[in-house]
Amino acid sequence: MKKLLGVVNLDYELDQLKELTYFRCGAAVPFAGRYRLIDFTLSNMMHAGILDTALFVRRKYRSLMDHLGEGKPWDLDRKSGGLFVLPPDWNDPTDPSAGDLQHVHNNLDFFRRSSGEVLVHAGTQHVNKVDIRDAYRYHEEKGADVTLIYTRVENLQPEHAPCTRLDVNEEGYVSHIHHETDHHNIYMEMFIMDKQLYLDQVRRCIAHGENHFFRDAIQRNPSGLKIAAYEYNGYHAVINSVESYYKNSMALLNQENYMELFRDQPVHTKIKYEAPTKYSETANVDNSLIANGCKIAGSVENSILFRGVEVKKGARVINSVIMQKCVIEENALIANVILDKDVKLTQDRTLVGDVKNPFVVAKSVTI
């Protein structure tokens, strides 16, 4: 098996989660009680043995860099290789590249120095547990130039509407790439490709004034690339709106969904050493996901609490997502609400959203 090289491309992931992406990019949004969306992508790459990973970022990545550090949780804190956060270089007036091609053009040294021969390209809006090694074996068996990873979704949801779709023939090759919204084969923004072929295609795209690698090199396919399709059948969630974030968060309160996401291989994240959650005699918790470091004296029902949340006596939290270090004061009530980090809800306050349209509060706000 050839050595794999990871690229996490955030360049075209729009910050669509409203208040949750006011101060951070989508990849840094907290999810499932203790993780960030990027943790799932990096963990998949870690389990595939990928030791060199480039992260293409363009905006609002301070929070992301704080979370990633040197990449230790994903075994990327290395003297040789490891994690590379690569914003585009704005200081070259002769640079003809644009879009995500600019990241590659301005960071060619990363690709040249990396010992990886095969590139695994992914984003963070599709939460999944893809076995990248198995996908690579399939790529080799098919003798493909590029292999696209997709999943078949029987019950299409609003978050699937903007996703790219694939037509796959009986031999397992892609016959057409499109955006027909009633089509069920959802492209998961992941592909596998030989590194040198990838760089050759980048150079061709730049020479022709193009700026979007997937669209201009793969979807339009002017070079006649042999494109295979690898079908993934495990846990899959698309997080590209507040509504999809809330719905998929709440779905993890179903034990079957939770186990499907976390059962086989661990998901790694930034390590924080905190005491276990403390439940007082007045606490009442039902069907909820509670991270460590919380203090609960009130009632929590069908909710997700991140690290260090405090729910005081008489307070009620229902069908809500409460992020790190939020404080819910005495006799406050929240239902169908998402609170970002460090929000304080004062005594006797009430916040109620809708199940299909949750009320969202930006970080560090006192209400």
Structural features, described:
With 367 residues, the protein is of the alpha/beta class. It folds into 2 domains: 4-262, Spore Coat Polysaccharide Biosynthesis Protein SpsA, Chain A, CATH 3.90.550; 278-361, Hexapeptide repeat proteins (UDP N-Acetylglucosamine Acyltransferase, domain 1, 3 Solenoid). Helix content is 22%, strand content 27%. It contains 9 helices and 28 strands. It has helices at residues 37-47, 62-68, 101-106, 108-113, 132-142, 195-207, 213-219, 242-251, 255-262, and strands at 4-9, 30-31, 35-36, 52-56, 82-86, 118-122, 126-128, 146-152, 165-168, 174-178, 185-194, 227-231, 236-238, 278-279, 284-286, 289-290, 295-296, 299-301, 304-305, 310-311, 316-318, 321-322, 327-328, 333-335, 337-339, 344-345, 350-352, 359-361. The strands form 7 sheets. A 7-stranded mixed beta sheet has the order 5-4-1-6-11-8-12. Strand 9 and strand 10 form a beta hairpin. The N and C termini lie far apart (55 Å). The mean pLDDT is 95.
For the largest beta-sheet, the strand count, sense and barrel status come to: 7 strands, mixed
By CATH, the superfamily of the largest domain comes out as Spore Coat Polysaccharide Biosynthesis Protein SpsA, Chain A
Quick one: how many beta strands? Answer: 28
Mean pLDDT rating: 95
Shape: elongated
Total domain count: 2
CATH topology call of the largest domain: Spore Coat Polysaccharide Biosynthesis Protein SpsA, Chain A
What Rg, in angstroms, do the CA atoms define?
A: 22 Å
Enzyme class: transferase
Keywords: Glycogen biosynthesis, Nucleotidyltransferase, Transferase
Protein name: Glucose-1-phosphate adenylyltransferase subunit GlgD
Organism: Paenibacillus lacisoli
